[in-house]
User: Fold this.
Amino acid sequence: DWIIVTFSLEEGTFRAELPGFGVAELFPMSDNEFFMKESDIVVTFEKAEGEKAENVTFLFGGSTERKGKRLPDITSTAAMLAEYTGEYFSEELGTTYTLVMQEDTLIATHRRHEDIPLEFIKADSLLGNRWFFRKLEFSRDNDDHIDGFLLTGGRVRNLRFDKVNP
Assistant:
């Protein structure tokens, strides 16, 4: 499963923000290795000399390892976000999600759920912060217009949503 972890340095304190877990302080073990006291997680950054870290490894409880990589910096413009807005319908579920812009963020709305902010992983790939609405892979028609997306979240993989108002 995809999870976006945001690392920041604020007033000399190195922090990690994990969706659903909040913000945790990271304490140095070496130049590239840190630990979180509250959760028994060790974070190791992999980088070349003088470069930004591109890869990260999380070690949970000394035994379970998960790897991650830096997301590309995608500067989204209003025009770029507007391309994704609209209603998307899943025939299988019989439900509709509407993607709207709120300021500089793309939001997925549904009549039964709280709003879900979306973040770019790369072009046409976005992440939501809910277990059931995690990863969206957008598809395009022959004219390069978005015609829908495949949703992966929880136990669901590649559930099709078609754009209703292209």
Observations:
- The two ends are 30 Å apart (CA to CA).
- Helices lie at 78-82.
